[in-house]
Amino acid sequence: MKFRSERDGLLDALVTAGRAGAARMGMGFGTQSLRLAVRGSELEVTGSDPDLVIEVVQVVSGEQDGTVLIPSRLATEIIRSFDPGTVSVEGNDQEARITSGRAEFVIRVPVGAEITRLIPAESKGIALPAGPFAEGLRQVVPAALNDDSRAPQLTGVLMVAVDKGLRLVATDSYRLAFRDLEGMSALEAGSEVLVPARALAEIQRLVGGEGERERQTELVFRHTEVDAVFEVHGVRLTTRLLKGPFPDYQRLLPASYPNAFRVAREEFAAAVRRVRLMVRDAKDAATPVRISFETDGAELTVLTAESGRAAERVDGQFTGGELVVAFNPNYLLDGIEAIRAETVILEVIDSSKPATVRGEGEDDYRYLLMPVRVS
To answer: Are 267 and 328 within one domain?
Structure first.
């Protein structure tokens, strides 16, 4: 195989496809391979691990059809090192030659290299607005469990068909986030699928923000009982669906709260970030932030044996009884930063029951957070 391409476009394709292998915790990025396949003027770059495949299609100047496997990290760093301009790639079963300007690299095909080929879902695709879907993922994905050794099903995001549209739900058992995307029809009535959160994080990254370009972009989604496929911006992502019982999240939602604190989102987030500085050391990682509520504000305090003490007061409006509640500062900040409204409402029952973070006037998003018990 042989083709020519501009450096920046080829580099983007390699980086995007390479994330399929790099995303898996515990797997070395350097051991992963990419498959480059040329057909006419089309280059398909494929990266994979056993549960996720990312395929990127790009227009190039094709000179000879064929395929080659290359080490992901090495090839990416080589092409990144070139000056902007044309890159030539040719290869066979044993090696690949990459040249640009006066530089030439000949790299061996990794021994035992292979690419997982998940069978793409063949059901009819459904077009979704990419921007709003990615915004929903931004709010929900952080609440999913990162480590699949405890409860693999909690590493996914539950996509559920509800009366108003599509609901996204994630939980790691310490917190729970859900977002309703009204008018978005992606599943048959009453159905649900459990999609790995790391695959959806890649979709969020591919789509980008929620600007004019993203609002006009469509994301194509389809699934079977075992896999799901997402296509956007010339990239196709295929992932295996997760199995296992997902928590009955609706029973966790309190009917009402006796205590509520209204505060400016940016001021609240900035204060949490500052006091959190005291718990960056691994020895203090489990140290919570205590929030003492008053009628016209709240006092945020972090106290550690190793680092010392931090405190900051934020103005706000509190309704309820005298109360002190402690939270994991990182989890609390994730909930605050997911809010779109200017005002955050923190609703609390007591120091041991789930609290809720939501935006004032926003009924489509909820973030539940378990308090940390402190003496």
So the answer is: yes
Contact 70, 87 (CB under 8 A): no
Can you give the pLDDT at residue 28?
46
Contact 366, 356 (CB under 8 A): yes
Closest among 281, 251, 230, 243 to 125, alpha carbons compared: 230
219 and 279 share one domain: no
- Over the stretch 245-285, which tens digit does the pLDDT of each residue have? 999 988 888 888 999 999 999 999 999 999 999 887 656 66
pTM: 0.89
| Residues 71, 136 share a domain | no
> Does residue 243 sit in the same domain as residue 299?
no
Q: Which of 236, 253, 232, 240 is nearest to 169 (CA)?
A: 253
Give the pLDDT score at 92.
93
pLDDT, mean of residues 37-64? 95
Indicate if 58 and 143 belong to the same structural domain: no
Contacts of 49 (CB under 8 A, 6+ apart): 20, 21, 23, 24, 27, 32, 116
Q: How many domains does the chain have?
A: 3
